[in-house]
Specification:
single chain; two-stranded antiparallel sheet; 13% strand; globular
């Protein structure tokens, strides 16, 4: 899928560059230990599933890479919503690609398994 930014179509790619950029967007800081760790998928994926627009923007920005700004991606998503009358297709595409990409598939599978276990525990109470 492509988003148009400044009249140029930009491909969404869920590769190693994406993984690095999404980790930069979502970090876990343990300042007392002097530790900062990228947790892009672990923190952002549940937000995508909850249909948080800011997460969609961060994931699309990371998937496009290059010199695009957050505001440019936000505008591209606004334009997409205007053109298509919805954003569900874009959300589904991003979530689906994360589950298929060789770079992110294992992490997404693990997150799905952990979510299913947590849901089972809640249902059993």
């Amino acid at each position: 899928m492509k988003l148009t930014i400044n009249n140029k179509e930009r491909e969404l790619k869920f590769n190693m560059g994406f993984a690095r950029r999404i980790d930069e967007a979502y970090t876990y800081d343990l300042k007392s230990e002097g530790l900062s760790m990228g947790m892009g998928l672990e923190m952002g994926y549940p937000l995508l599933l909850s249909r948080k627009l800011t997460a969609l923007t961060e994931f699309c920005k990371a998937a496009i890479g290059g010199d695009v700004t957050y505001l440019q991606v936000e505008k591209a998503i606004d334009d997409y919503a205007e053109e298509h009358g919805e954003l569900e297709t874009l959300f589904e595409y991003v979530v689906g690609e994360l589950g298929k990409s060789p770079v992110t598939k294992a992490t997404v599978t693990k997150l799905k398994e952990e979510t299913a276990k947590a849901e089972m525990k809640l249902k059993s109470k």
